[in-house]
Specification:
Layout: H1 2-6, E1 10-17, E2 22-28, H2 33-44, H3 53-56, E3 58-62, E4 67-68, E5 85-90, H4 100-113, H5 118-124, H6 135-165, H7 170-182, H8 191-199, H9 204-213, H10 218-227, H11 254-259, H12 267-284, H13 291-298, H14 304-313, H15 318-326, H16 345-352, H17 354-359, H18 363-374, H19 379-383, H20 389-404
Parallel strand pairs: 1-5
Antiparallel strand pairs: 1-2, 3-4, 3-5
Helix pairs in contact: 6-18, 7-12, 8-9, 9-10, 13-14, 14-15, 16-20
Amino acid sequence: QEEKIFAGKVLRLHVCTMEGAEWLEEVPEDTTVEKLKERCLKHCLPGSLEDPKTVTHHKLIHATSEKVLTDTKTVLEENIQDRDVLLLVKKRAPTLLPKMSDVVAEEKRKQEQKAPDKDAILKATANLPARSADRSVTHHNMRDFQTELRKILVSLIEVAQKLLALNPDAVELFKKANAMLDEDEEDRVDEIALRQLTEMGFPESRAVKALRLNHMSVTQAMEWLIEHADDPSVDAPLPGSAPAEAPAEGAASPAEAAAGPSSEEGGEEAKDELTEIFKKIRRKREFRPDPRAVIALMEMGFDEKEVVDALRVNNNQQNAACEWLLGDRKPSPEDLDKGIDTNSPLFQAILENPVVQLGLTNPKTLLAFEDMLENPLNSTQWMNDPETGPVMLQISRIFQTLNRT
């Protein structure tokens, strides 16, 4: 009777397993979690208690608090209330530690696959004859390829101009050519990006400069403007950018020049007019140095003109331009305007190709040559063009074929 009077409160607990079994367990509040776990295992896994490890391999979790219950504590100490839900979960098997023999074998395998260090290489090659590759010769051969390609473009431009001048619709064709050039958006500034920066309070001229320096990225341009807010040269024009030339008095605009003479005017006058159009196209396609590369190289102490020359010779590649400035500075900028020998087998093979012959009568091919001559990085664009791509592919194949022989 005393036991009944002073017995603890009986709790009804809802127990669930991961397999979906559910039942009610009635236990006094002074029952230990370990005893409760044994009762649960006896209910859902009959005979499992024959293995003493079964109890330690399972755990009870309080569903509401997601707390793992401690085996040595009582139900009361774990603050479990009547009608609470408990989860009976099997513990994950602990990760077995690798055997020492396996560790040694793995280390040995890693050592065998490890690349040799400098001392090991010198020891293994001690008996070999010394040979030092001339890196300057390799670099020079690469330069020769670029220079030869430029020479081909220079000479093909001259041929294309002569062929197009013979076309009775030459002036009309170049009206379209000038229109294509006018549609070039490379010099245009993203109006939405510019408006975002000006609305932040930045002056328009600085915002334009920042966007051009950061490839029209608003975020990078804003960072540049904040970083150079106190820079006295922040409003200076970008290096290498020439101001727009005002048309001379009486000079015709590109559109007017492209309009051409009337049919009654002589062929000589039309030829002179085409020459002027060619000059205008060349001026529109002038080399544009990378402003970031110009600034970086000028900070090293080089003059702006020689920096622009270096970038032009090295296709706007900053590292190559730096080597050119510190080296023998060959080829020179003047060498870039020299054409290939018209009697050479390479040039004759290019001109005899029917795809090239047909392409040279297209004004778009001339524009592509002009663009690649001054901006070699645009060559991919013209290689993918349906009109100019086949011509460039044939020139490349002929050059590679003759270069191997």
